[in-house]
Design a protein that fits this description.
Rossmann fold; 7 strands; 7 helices; binds S-adenosylmethionine; about 210 residues; single chain; seven-stranded mixed sheet
Protein backbone atom coordinates (compact mmCIF):
# COMPACT_ATOMS: atom_id res chain seq x y z
CA UNK A 1 0.00 0.00 0.00
CA UNK A 2 1.45 3.41 -0.95
CA UNK A 3 1.24 6.37 1.46
CA UNK A 4 -1.28 7.95 -0.88
CA UNK A 5 -3.54 4.89 -0.67
CA UNK A 6 -3.15 4.91 3.12
CA UNK A 7 -4.42 8.50 3.31
CA UNK A 8 -7.16 7.95 0.72
CA UNK A 9 -8.48 5.09 2.87
CA UNK A 10 -8.27 7.12 6.06
CA UNK A 11 -9.84 10.30 4.62
CA UNK A 12 -13.52 9.60 5.52
CA UNK A 13 -12.53 8.72 9.12
CA UNK A 14 -10.20 11.71 9.32
CA UNK A 15 -13.04 14.01 8.23
CA UNK A 16 -15.27 12.75 11.05
CA UNK A 17 -12.62 12.70 13.78
CA UNK A 18 -13.10 15.52 16.30
CA UNK A 19 -10.11 17.80 17.02
CA UNK A 20 -8.30 16.21 19.98
CA UNK A 21 -7.59 19.46 21.88
CA UNK A 22 -9.82 22.29 20.68
CA UNK A 23 -8.20 24.90 22.95
CA UNK A 24 -4.72 24.09 21.63
CA UNK A 25 -5.99 24.10 18.02
CA UNK A 26 -7.65 27.52 18.48
CA UNK A 27 -4.45 28.87 20.06
CA UNK A 28 -2.45 27.63 17.06
CA UNK A 29 -4.92 29.31 14.70
CA UNK A 30 -4.64 32.58 16.64
CA UNK A 31 -0.84 32.46 16.28
CA UNK A 32 -1.16 31.80 12.55
CA UNK A 33 -3.74 34.50 11.87
CA UNK A 34 -1.71 37.02 13.91
CA UNK A 35 1.05 36.62 11.29
CA UNK A 36 -1.22 36.86 8.23
CA UNK A 37 -1.95 40.04 6.27
CA UNK A 38 -5.07 40.71 4.14
CA UNK A 39 -2.90 40.92 0.99
CA UNK A 40 -1.20 37.55 1.62
CA UNK A 41 -1.21 34.62 -0.77
CA UNK A 42 -0.98 31.48 1.39
CA UNK A 43 -0.18 27.87 0.56
CA UNK A 44 -1.22 25.12 2.97
CA UNK A 45 0.56 21.85 2.15
CA UNK A 46 -0.92 18.52 3.29
CA UNK A 47 -4.25 20.23 4.05
CA UNK A 48 -6.23 17.03 4.69
CA UNK A 49 -9.95 17.70 4.58
CA UNK A 50 -9.35 21.45 4.58
CA UNK A 51 -10.60 22.62 7.99
CA UNK A 52 -7.60 24.84 8.71
CA UNK A 53 -7.47 26.27 5.17
CA UNK A 54 -11.14 27.28 5.52
CA UNK A 55 -10.41 29.02 8.84
CA UNK A 56 -7.43 30.91 7.35
CA UNK A 57 -9.16 32.03 4.12
CA UNK A 58 -11.14 35.00 5.60
CA UNK A 59 -7.88 36.63 6.79
CA UNK A 60 -5.99 36.73 3.48
CA UNK A 61 -6.29 37.44 -0.25
CA UNK A 62 -6.02 33.81 -1.35
CA UNK A 63 -5.38 30.33 0.06
CA UNK A 64 -4.20 27.44 -2.08
CA UNK A 65 -4.48 24.18 -0.14
CA UNK A 66 -2.90 20.99 -1.47
CA UNK A 67 -2.82 17.33 -0.53
CA UNK A 68 -1.66 14.28 -2.46
CA UNK A 69 -4.74 12.30 -1.41
CA UNK A 70 -7.52 12.64 -4.00
CA UNK A 71 -10.01 11.56 -1.34
CA UNK A 72 -8.92 14.25 1.15
CA UNK A 73 -9.25 16.88 -1.61
CA UNK A 74 -12.64 15.52 -2.68
CA UNK A 75 -13.99 15.82 0.89
CA UNK A 76 -12.41 19.28 1.35
CA UNK A 77 -14.02 20.52 -1.88
CA UNK A 78 -17.42 18.98 -1.06
CA UNK A 79 -17.44 20.73 2.31
CA UNK A 80 -17.00 24.08 0.57
CA UNK A 81 -20.31 23.66 -1.20
CA UNK A 82 -22.09 23.72 2.17
CA UNK A 83 -20.42 26.96 3.29
CA UNK A 84 -20.52 30.63 2.35
CA UNK A 85 -17.58 33.04 2.61
CA UNK A 86 -14.02 33.14 1.28
CA UNK A 87 -13.04 29.74 -0.04
CA UNK A 88 -9.61 28.17 -0.37
CA UNK A 89 -8.62 26.64 -3.70
CA UNK A 90 -8.10 22.90 -3.13
CA UNK A 91 -5.66 21.07 -5.40
CA UNK A 92 -4.39 17.51 -5.44
CA UNK A 93 -0.59 17.78 -5.44
CA UNK A 94 2.48 16.17 -3.96
CA UNK A 95 3.92 18.21 -1.07
CA UNK A 96 5.99 21.17 -2.31
CA UNK A 97 5.43 20.21 -5.93
CA UNK A 98 5.96 23.27 -8.16
CA UNK A 99 2.62 24.98 -8.70
CA UNK A 100 1.99 28.20 -10.59
CA UNK A 101 1.41 30.85 -7.94
CA UNK A 102 4.81 30.57 -6.19
CA UNK A 103 6.40 32.16 -4.29
CA UNK A 104 3.90 32.51 -1.43
CA UNK A 105 3.82 35.07 1.37
CA UNK A 106 3.13 32.31 3.89
CA UNK A 107 3.38 28.53 3.59
CA UNK A 108 1.79 26.31 6.27
CA UNK A 109 2.47 22.61 6.89
CA UNK A 110 0.62 21.15 9.87
CA UNK A 111 1.18 17.53 10.94
CA UNK A 112 2.94 16.90 7.64
CA UNK A 113 6.75 17.16 7.63
CA UNK A 114 7.26 13.94 9.63
CA UNK A 115 5.32 12.11 6.89
CA UNK A 116 7.84 13.14 4.24
CA UNK A 117 11.25 11.69 3.44
CA UNK A 118 14.48 13.66 2.99
CA UNK A 119 13.54 16.58 5.24
CA UNK A 120 16.52 18.75 4.15
CA UNK A 121 15.31 18.61 0.52
CA UNK A 122 11.69 19.28 1.60
CA UNK A 123 12.74 22.31 3.63
CA UNK A 124 14.86 23.61 0.73
CA UNK A 125 11.80 23.45 -1.51
CA UNK A 126 9.75 25.29 1.15
CA UNK A 127 12.44 27.99 1.22
CA UNK A 128 12.37 28.44 -2.58
CA UNK A 129 8.55 28.62 -2.56
CA UNK A 130 8.42 31.28 0.21
CA UNK A 131 8.89 34.87 -0.99
CA UNK A 132 11.79 36.83 0.58
CA UNK A 133 10.44 38.23 3.85
CA UNK A 134 7.71 35.55 3.94
CA UNK A 135 7.07 32.83 6.54
CA UNK A 136 7.09 29.05 6.59
CA UNK A 137 4.90 27.91 9.50
CA UNK A 138 4.98 24.26 10.54
CA UNK A 139 3.81 22.02 13.36
CA UNK A 140 5.53 18.65 13.22
CA UNK A 141 5.60 15.53 15.36
CA UNK A 142 9.24 15.10 16.45
CA UNK A 143 9.33 11.47 17.49
CA UNK A 144 13.04 11.43 18.29
CA UNK A 145 12.11 13.57 21.32
CA UNK A 146 9.58 10.95 22.46
CA UNK A 147 10.28 8.22 25.04
CA UNK A 148 11.85 5.03 23.67
CA UNK A 149 8.66 2.98 24.26
CA UNK A 150 6.62 5.40 22.13
CA UNK A 151 9.10 5.22 19.24
CA UNK A 152 9.06 1.42 19.49
CA UNK A 153 5.26 1.42 19.41
CA UNK A 154 5.19 3.66 16.33
CA UNK A 155 7.66 1.35 14.57
CA UNK A 156 5.35 -1.61 15.26
CA UNK A 157 2.28 0.31 14.05
CA UNK A 158 4.19 1.29 10.89
CA UNK A 159 5.21 -2.32 10.30
CA UNK A 160 1.58 -3.50 10.48
CA UNK A 161 0.50 -0.45 8.46
CA UNK A 162 -1.81 0.96 11.10
CA UNK A 163 0.35 4.08 11.18
CA UNK A 164 1.71 5.78 8.05
CA UNK A 165 5.45 5.72 7.36
CA UNK A 166 7.09 8.48 9.39
CA UNK A 167 10.48 10.13 9.53
CA UNK A 168 11.78 10.10 13.09
CA UNK A 169 13.43 13.45 13.73
CA UNK A 170 14.01 15.74 16.69
CA UNK A 171 13.02 19.36 17.12
CA UNK A 172 16.76 20.27 17.13
CA UNK A 173 17.29 18.46 13.81
CA UNK A 174 14.25 20.10 12.22
CA UNK A 175 15.39 23.52 13.41
CA UNK A 176 18.89 22.89 12.03
CA UNK A 177 17.46 21.84 8.63
CA UNK A 178 15.37 25.04 8.52
CA UNK A 179 18.38 27.22 9.34
CA UNK A 180 20.60 25.38 6.84
CA UNK A 181 17.98 26.01 4.14
CA UNK A 182 18.32 29.75 4.86
CA UNK A 183 15.38 30.42 7.20
CA UNK A 184 15.62 32.40 10.43
CA UNK A 185 13.51 31.13 13.33
CA UNK A 186 11.00 33.72 14.58
CA UNK A 187 9.10 31.56 17.06
CA UNK A 188 8.99 28.03 18.48
CA UNK A 189 6.27 27.01 20.88
CA UNK A 190 3.96 24.22 21.99
CA UNK A 191 0.21 24.30 22.46
CA UNK A 192 -1.68 22.45 25.17
CA UNK A 193 0.03 19.52 26.86
CA UNK A 194 1.70 18.25 23.68
CA UNK A 195 5.48 18.62 23.91
CA UNK A 196 6.30 16.52 20.84
CA UNK A 197 4.90 18.76 18.09
CA UNK A 198 6.68 22.12 18.03
CA UNK A 199 5.00 24.97 16.17
CA UNK A 200 7.82 26.75 14.35
CA UNK A 201 7.58 30.05 12.50
CA UNK A 202 10.53 30.30 10.11
CA UNK A 203 11.20 33.50 8.12
CA UNK A 204 12.93 33.75 4.79
CA UNK A 205 15.14 36.83 5.17
CA UNK A 206 14.04 39.77 3.00
CA UNK A 207 17.35 39.89 1.10
C1 LIG B 1 -1.96 14.01 9.64
S1 LIG B 1 -2.78 14.61 8.23
C2 LIG B 1 -2.78 16.37 8.57
C3 LIG B 1 -3.86 17.09 7.83
C4 LIG B 1 -3.96 18.57 8.20
N1 LIG B 1 -2.78 19.30 7.84
C5 LIG B 1 -4.24 18.73 9.67
O1 LIG B 1 -3.42 19.34 10.38
O2 LIG B 1 -5.29 18.24 10.12
C6 LIG B 1 -1.51 14.52 7.01
C7 LIG B 1 -1.98 14.91 5.62
O3 LIG B 1 -0.83 15.00 4.79
C8 LIG B 1 -1.11 14.40 3.54
N2 LIG B 1 0.17 13.93 2.99
C9 LIG B 1 0.98 12.96 3.48
N3 LIG B 1 2.06 12.82 2.69
C10 LIG B 1 1.93 13.72 1.69
C11 LIG B 1 2.72 14.05 0.55
N4 LIG B 1 3.87 13.40 0.29
N5 LIG B 1 2.30 15.04 -0.27
C12 LIG B 1 1.13 15.68 -0.02
N6 LIG B 1 0.32 15.42 1.03
C13 LIG B 1 0.72 14.44 1.88
C14 LIG B 1 -2.09 13.28 3.86
O4 LIG B 1 -2.85 12.92 2.74
C15 LIG B 1 -2.92 13.91 4.97
O5 LIG B 1 -4.04 14.57 4.45
Amino acid sequence: MTSQTFWDRHAPGYAKKPIADVTAYEEKLRCVTAILKPSDHVLEVGCGTGGTARRIAPFVAHVTATDFSAEMIRIASARLEAEAGPAPEFLQAEAFQDITEQPYDVICAFSLLHLLEDIPSVVNKAFRQTRPGGRFISKTVCLKDAPQWMRAMVRVLMAVRIAPKVTILSRAELTRHLIEAGFEIDQTQYFGKNRLSPFIVARRPAN
